[in-house]
Amino acid sequence: MPRKINQEASPSRKLLGLFSLLLFSGEWYSLPDLAQIFKCSKQTISRLLEEIELSHEAKIERETRSRTCFYRICAPKKQPHVSLTPAEISQLVLCRDLVMHLLPDDLRASVARTIRQTTVLLPEPEQRCQAMDSYVQVSVRGQIDYTPFHGFLDALLQSIREKYVCEIEYLAASRAQPKLHEIAPMRIIAYREALYVSAWKVTPKGTPEPVHPMLLALHRFKSVIPTRRTFNLPLPPSEAEGLFGLMPQEPFKARIRFDRSVAPYIRERRWSTEQSLTAQEDGGVILELAARSEAELMSWVLSFGTHAELISPQHMRHQLIQSLSGAKELYQECEVGAFR
């Protein structure tokens, strides 16, 4: 059921709301349904429906079910060219549902409203409803609420389009206080349930010159101020795109052995644009891949517990051994229930 509008809304606002609801949804509504949505009497809804019909801008279709009359607006008989089919709109709904958890609340509403409005010129009202049906559920762990950062996201997207240098305050995970930077934002990256800004740190005066590339977590921004300075810079180096990990480091090769219990999971996925799989006699598999973040690779290997072994690089293998030794000591020293 759509949300109820403001009870103090003027008659003209109710008329416009009723027209929009019937036009964009393509669904059937009874007088009691509409009266509840718009917080007014059924007589008022009947009068508004008559006004819509008298305007000759739309035809109201009626259907009786169990002595209750339902209403909806008919699509125009002469259809203009529509570039999107019901199947294509359904694909947009699928894309929306897959990324909706990353968007601020206002942007979610805007995306949903925009897609809903694309259905208005579909020939049959039933197609509008079917095109908007959602069949996807996204399960997220450690979700970030980006609603407080909507203004920052809008400012960054505008600056990317207009090529504006931005003055930002950014609180890195390793710092206690935010630091000022001047950046040329280049693009927004979605990675593992979080949004990042790929940018150049630029010189503070005159024509912006690139200092070094930056990868910044959107939820760690404290302020974003677009300036009047414009830039004309290429995207940051992309040689490492498609390699395992996000954080930009010097690319390296790694070999990991997985036992037979997790081998199907490893074989079913692409972990790097440069990878190879070698089957083992015991049913396991050795994955060789190119990566660019040691910390992310070690964390990933550790997530498999005893089912994965990092073979190389040797220095990372030693780091993993030290990490596991420290974890073992931690659990041996702590008595069960000591922290409860």
TrEMBL record:
Residues 251-325 form the WCX domain. It comes from the Bacteria. It comes from Nitratidesulfovibrio vulgaris (strain DP4). This is Transcriptional regulator-like protein. Residues 152-224 form the WYL domain. Pfam families: WCX (PF25583), WYL (PF13280).
